[in-house]
Each structure stands twice: as C-alpha cells, then as structure tokens.
Amino acid sequence: MAELVPFAVPTESYKTLLVWALSPGPTAEALQLSLFTVFSRFGLLYSVRVFPNAAVASPGFSAIIKFYSAGEAQRAQKACDGKLLFQASPVKVRLGTRHKAVLHHTLPLTSSRCQELANYYFGFQGWSKRIIKLQELSDLEERENDDLVVPLEKPSLKFFCVVEVVLPLYECRSYGVGIAEETLEEGPLTFLMKRKAAQKHAIQRALSDAFQKLCIVVLESGKIAVEYKPSEEMEDVGNEEHDLIQKFWLQVTHKTELWNISGVT
Questions:
Q1: CA 176 from centroid of its chain's CA atoms
Q2: Which of 142-156, 194-208, 237-251 is the most confident on average?
C-alpha cells in the first residue's frame, strides 16, 4: 500500500516512537545526538526530544522521536527495540499510543522544513523554486499625506509574494502566496531591517504555501510519486490582499489552459 507524506508537522501516533530505559550517564544533549544518529538511518526525522525520568522513577531518560513517514517509523521500532544501540543495556522502543478520539489539527511545515523534506525525497536537483511576484502593499505615502495629527496605528511595511515550485521529473508545478507585515519604528536602519524582514517572511510563507498543495506518495516499490491538491483560499486577509490573490489565480488558470492546449505541462 502506498503511503502519503504531506508537507505538514507529523502529529500522528504511528509516526511517533517512544524510547525509554535510557541510561542516566550521558547528558540529555549527548543522548539527543546519539538517538538522532541511530534513528536517522531509517529515515528523515522531524524531531528528537529527550526528557529526564520522573522523580518517582529510576534515574535515566526517555525520548520522543517523530518521523515524517509511518513506514520508516515502524521499521525503526522493529530494528531498535530491545537492542543496546549506544549503551550497555537494551533500550525499549514502542510506537506512540493511538488515541482515536483525538483529532490533530494539521500544521504546515516552515519553508526550511519543506525544503529539507523535498531534498530528502526528490533530491537537491529534483525540484526548484522561483519568485514570481514580490509586491509592497504598504501605505506609508498615504499616511504621510494624511491630515490626522495623531495616527491611530503605527506605520507598517507589508509585502505580498507569489512563489512557484517546480518538479520537472513529475511534470508538476505548484504556486503559493504569502503575506507578511512588519511594524515600523523610528530610525533609517530600522526601516531597512524591517523592510528586509517583511520581504523574507512573505517569501517564506509563499514557499510553504506552495508545498502545502503537494503530497509525497511513497509506493510499495520504494519509488516516489507526487499528488497535487490545491488548497483553500488564504484566511485572515484584507480586501486588497484578497483581490491580489484572486487576480493571481485567474492568471494561473489562464496559463494552465494554454499549457494544456499546447501540450506543455
């Protein structure tokens, strides 16, 4: 059976390993590094967290390890449970407890995490990104010309960005939009720093949004496929941003129709 690996924070119990019976000798930081070294051999890890045992328990540590892939988590559990790994006594490894009543809210990965996941499955040369639009939406000039003596709000810098992610091998492209805003403080250096930060965050959000529309499909043979699912419209945006997003999607739809007519994907 094929497995779907979305560009989302893994919260499912079947992607989570519980590790305990870790010796109290090493520090938590040393244990975290050792666990990462061992379990990353089975697949890409989202996180490795180490905790000291409760005061009522015997001295030592336990850990929670999250994989992006359920299959890789299961293989790691079977291979490592009851083994010595990096210490003199065997460790215990179990899959996370399943709670059917708990519904996990899907959280999108950050842009850096998305790129890490894409590099792992598609390779560094297997995908590319391109900034299509980076537009400022700030109203600084209007504020300066405003007749109000005391402004109600501090001026801010706002940027709108559109990013394209392309997977040539799979003849797939995905577009994402991002909006970021930074409140301005006094000083020219602050203005430049805030402007750069707003641009950077808009680009990051657009890149993350583009990846949210993609889902990695891991086939039983180990081969990789891609599923494309356009996401719903962005929430919590103003009228100007809403109009820009609508206009952009109309342009994308028109281009897609032209590609289909000409046979270009």
A1: 13
A2: 194-208
d(CA 15, CA 66): 6
pLDDT at 256 over 50: no
CB 201 within 8 A of CB 189: no
Q: CA–CA distance from 3 to each of 6, 11, 214, 218, 228 (Å)? A: 10, 16, 14, 5, 15
Q: Collapsing DSSP states into helix, strand and coil, what is residue 112?
A: helix
A 10 A CB-CB count for 217 gives 16
Phi, psi of 162 (to 5 degrees): -125, 130
**Residue 210 · residue 172 · CB < 8 Å:** no
Q: Which two tokens stand for residue 26?
A: 């090493």
Residue type, 222: G
Residues 114-141, mean pLDDT to the nearest whole number: 90
Q: Is 114 helix (H, G, I), strand (E, B) or coil?
A: helix
- Closest to 95 in 3D by CA, of 119, 64, 68: 64
